[in-house]
Design goal:
Blueprint: E1 3-9, H1 14-20, H2 23-30, E2 33-39, E3 51-52, H3 53-56, H4 59-75, E4 85-86, H5 90-101, H6 105-117, H7 126-135, H8 140-147, H9 150-165, E5 173-176, E6 179-182, H10 187-196
Parallel strand pairs: 1-2
Antiparallel strand pairs: 1-5, 3-4, 5-6
Length: 203
């Protein structure tokens, strides 16, 4: 019987992207796990229209951050771009909740992550969000509508509140019961987590 790993992450978190494209991908492939994803806004105070990264971070700090990300991505063998635009992800996270109801959560999530980290797409822009949804066989207009729908926006807020109750202070954070791994951890750290939780390897 699969054990549930509860994952809190956001689309614009670089370490979430690296972890999901490396350690977590391998973990899901090798162990009997079900992943329960919860969108956790990394920067809920980002303006609705988004903002230039250079406005948020001083040039020297931004350069240091990008150099560190290059090093981490290389260590985990993950290819990624360097987006200059920081979107507000609330609508994208709401659309992900709608996609969950359509049975296409993971496809939508993958497309959203790739849009931001590989193609420089603006995850706060309705046109781009419609395109992302269409790429995975969902109706773009309905996706955009969901991004403004109070039902799905309330789920986004509830996911963040759940994370805060669970003690999430940064993303990605992965839980199995009360055991957790925080950040873009090496695969071995995740293996230790699942072994402590008694998760079996796939036969």
């Amino acid at each position: 019987m699969a054990v549930t790993l509860e994952l809190f992450s956001d689309f614009v978190c670089p370490f979430c992207y690296i972890a999901e494209r490396s350690s977590l991908t391998r973990l899901k492939r090798e162990f009997d796990l079900t992943v329960d994803w919860r969108g956790f806004e990394l920067r809920p105070d980002t303006p609705d229209e988004g903002i230039e990264m250079a406005t948020v971070f001083p040039p020297a700090r931004l350069a240091m951050m990008r150099e560190r990300l290059r090093e981490v991505a290389k260590r985990f063998d993950v290819k990624m771009g360097e987006p200059s635009w920081l979107p507000n992800t609330r609508k994208a996270l709401a659309i992900a909740e709608w996609a969950r109801d359509q049975g296409r959560l993971w496809e939508l999530r993958d497309a959203a992550l790739d849009s931001h980290w590989l193609h420089g797409g603006d995850l706060g822009d309705d046109g781009n969000l419609a395109k992302v949804a269409s790429l995975v066989g969902l109706d773009g207009a309905q996706a955009v509508k969901a991004g403004h729908d109070r039902v799905y926006l309330d789920r986004v807020r509830a996911n963040r509140e759940l994370g805060e109750r669970r003690g999430v202070q940064g993303v990605p954070t992965s839980f199995i019961g009360q055991l957790s791994v925080v950040g873009c951890a090496p695969y071995e750290d995740f293996v230790e987590l699942v072994k402590q939780a008694g998760v079996a390897k796939h036969s």
